[in-house]
Amino acid sequence: MLCKPRQRIRRWQLLLILVVALGSAVAAKVQASEQHYRAFFESSVLPLSEPAHLAPMYDAIGERRFVLLGESTHGTHEYYHWRAEISRELITNHDFSFIAVEGDWHAIYQLNDFVKLRDSVEDNASGDARTLLRNHAIRWPRWMWINEDFADFLDWLRAHNAERPMAQRVGVFGIDMQDPQDSMEHVLAWFQHNDPSNYPQVADAYHRMLDFPEEFRGYAQHLVYGGERLNNQMALAAKLLHDQLGGNPADADKATWVARENALVAKRAEAQFHGATQLGPESWNARARFMHESLLRLAKRHGEESRGIVWAHNTHVGDSAATNMSNRGEVNIGHLLRISEGEDDVFILGFGTYQGSVIASPSWGEGQQEIAVVPAHPESYEGLLHQSGIQQGLFLFDDTARQGDLLAPRHQRAIGVIYTPPNEAYVPTILTRRYDGFIYFDETQALNPL
């Protein structure tokens, strides 16, 4: 009778010992992994205090056709400064032909006219990017492009282009589609002026969408309540323009090519908003596929020997297959481009920070604020880099960095246009597979909006 309680006590003691031992083993494994990462960072970091320190990265880029430059926020001065520095070098000494940014096609194309010194932009006479940007109708979040760093880069690119014939001038293009209404208005104006016979049917198709309260957002609500999908209507203008171009849109005159690109914005935007009403990744993927396809169309437009630079958030350029995005079926430009063009033709550079300040907003559509970036989680990549004592540095990843513990996912910080610390977003990431290189800053400063 007295033995049974003692046996039960021994079993619980054994169970407790096993739990503690298991927890200790897991903790030891985590600690060993963290130590491995810190040792890797300390041994592989390259200095980055002046532009000349980027030379090893240019060697790694070699003859690759596409260079994707990321950012872990949409409002950090250092990211814009170093992306501009890298872009100047690639354009000046490596024959890169165009820059594609995470901005709306229609809005950014007006900046393209500016940097190429086309007479259609009123501010070309003064050559002042700041005046142009302050008066430019770019949607919220305006600070992404209406800021001192981007203005400096546009002024440099305009001066660089002024010494070259039009065919050799480097342009800036948007490959996003978050403001489809402006693109639709552009397409309607093109049909009214250039193809009046087809204008009525295109206008009728587009106004089916534009007549909803809040336009595309109203359309999404219409779908939720079982309304008719308007995918054929939104695809009509793109099809008519494609037919007119005889299947060779890359060789079209400038006005017709621009109209077709804007028509494709409307077509893909419909797919994005339809996807938003469904369970799954289709809304995100519609945007990602548009960015990828738009980039490839730009490359084709610029010729077989053209080379392109992309500025976009890490979430878009860092290969989604090396993150938990793949678990949700989500793709992005980096992943799609590595598949379509091959990894040897794509170089992806990520950016990250431990702490500092950033321009962001506390909620969607609200005004911009300078917000303190709180120290990163100690177990994140940024946390381990901080613990390694690295203030600023460049990392380049080869096959030796893609094995063993370095293939274990770890959190990487991601700050978007909305930032409400202490609420933080982190993406489980295999850093050395997500990127070909990485630039880290221990502390960063906010952009200076115009």
TrEMBL record:
Keywords: Methyltransferase, Transferase. One of its GO terms (molecular function) is methyltransferase activity. The keyword Transferase applies. GO terms for biological process: methylation; response to antibiotic. It comes from the Bacteria. PANTHER family: ESTERASE, PUTATIVE (AFU_ORTHOLOGUE AFUA_1G05850)-RELATED. This is Protein-L-isoaspartate O-methyltransferase. It comes from Vreelandella nigrificans.
